[in-house]
Amino acid sequence: MKPEHQPKPKSQTGDSLEFKAILLVDDDKQLAATLQWILADENFLVDVAHDGDEALLKVKANEYDAVICDVMMPNLRGDEFYLKAREVRSYLSDRFIFITGFAADPNINLFLTRNDVKYLVKPFPVQGLIDCVKQLLA
Predict the structure, then answer these.
(1) 59 Cβ partners below 8 Å, 6+ apart?
(2) Cα dist. 133→39, 78, 97, 98 in Å?
(3) Is the dihedral of CA 104, 88, 91, 133 positive or negative?
């Protein structure tokens, strides 16, 4: 005999959570792992790549709601990855947040301002990154 009032599974209720997928790209594996954990704790689905080449493969294979990307990385740098990623998925052009310790470098600064992208300067407050991601996805 079945009980008369069974709770509905979460997927059938109007209260289901919508998880946003983020690609996190940073060659600093410890920082990437820490940020992945922090963002997952904020209910984001976080995929990690450790350079632009790996990130480009992931962008070709998956759809992301946002990309958090270091600028200075081996192989394919973050600025070069950005240009290639928006060729593959044009909607990503305004979905990037760059994190860099080199914002004062004239070439990097020119890239950031010319492309009008969001960026945070390392070291940045973790809450600042969380707020920036939430604002981008609002």
Answers:
(1) 23, 67, 85, 88, 89, 92
(2) 9, 18, 8, 11
(3) negative
Place of tokens 């290639």: 84
Q: How far is CA 30 from CA 14, 36, 50, in A?
A: 38, 10, 11
Query: Quick one: angle between helices 52-61 and 78-88, nearest 10?
Result: 20
pTM: 0.86
Asked whether the beta carbons of 55 and 26 are under 8 A apart, the reply is: no
Q: 13-32, pLDDT tens digit by residue?
A: 445 567 899 999 999 999 99
Q: Are residues 39 and 133 in contact, defined by beta-carbon separation less than 8 angstroms?
A: yes
Q: How far apart are CA 106 and CA 62, in angstroms?
A: 33
**Contact status, residue 51 vs residue 75, Cβ threshold 8 Å:** yes
